[in-house]
Amino acid sequence: MIDAILATKRKEIERLKGRRFPPREKPFIPLAFGDGVNIIAELKRRSPSAGAIAEIDEERIAVYSRYAKGISVLTDKTWFSGSFDLLEEVAGKTRLPILCKDFIIDESQIDLACSKGADIVLLIARILDKERLKTLYLYARELGLNCLVEIHRKEEIDRIDGLQPEIIGVNARDLDTLRIDLGSVEEMLSCVDAPMRIAESGIKSRRDIERLGRANGFLIGETLMRAKEPEAVFRELLYV
């Protein structure tokens, strides 16, 4: 699956190369965690593993803005029915920091994300070698963006060595098989250290959050997107 996604990305990058993006208008908003459970809520219409999930409307964005610490926006069009225009729209409707969730392998994608109002970009160690990851990380930081550096396997830890990112994400989903394993997140969280340690994927309940206690942030997408009353789900997850 990941090879097919990256093939699509390379075609997209060919169209982005040489484009000039309009200057960013909104100020950067930092991601900040408090004590207790910190949620980054994801806006996702569909995914390769789940198919169609739900549509995105202003009411959902408003609920996310009340309860989350940040909002993640899928910008991949082919596989997730997202877009950078959606990211720009959401950035204009919330005061929360926006994470651009995509398969970033080129500087042009970072330029576009920055122009559209992202505050954080996702960099996935699985799809980048150590030098390329460092190059893209430093490029994003120079623009004023923060980076969520994502790992899944122990062998990927070496790729982030030396970066000292503020935000490390551990993804429960294997990008090759699309399977979820929260046990792997537990194991990986014991191997990394960062001010913000985010557990990603497969989180459905407060019990899952308590199980992943070494994380201080949780990226939650499908559970919230499928909820008819996302506010009730937030209240359950946050104990409020």
Kindly list the characteristics that best describe this protein.
240 residues, alpha/beta, TIM Barrel, 8-stranded parallel barrel, two-stranded antiparallel sheet, 10 strands, 37% helix
Q: Care to describe what's here?
A:
The chain has an eight-stranded parallel barrel, surrounded by four helices. The model has no long low-confidence stretch (mean pLDDT 96). It has ten helices and ten strands. The chain is 37% helix and 18% strand. It has 240 residues and is an alpha/beta fold. It has one domain (37-238): Aldolase class I (TIM Barrel, Alpha-Beta Barrel).
Helices and strands in order:
Blueprint: H1 2-16, E1 39-43, E2 46-47, E3 51-52, H2 58-67, E4 70-74, H3 84-91, E5 98-101, H4 107-116, E6 120-124, H5 130-143, E7 146-151, H6 157-160, E8 167-171, H7 182-189, E9 196-200, H8 206-211, E10 217-220, H9 222-225, H10 230-238
Parallel strand pairs: 1-4, 1-10, 4-5, 5-6, 6-7, 7-8, 8-9, 9-10
Antiparallel strand pairs: 2-3
Helix pairs in contact: 2-10, 4-5
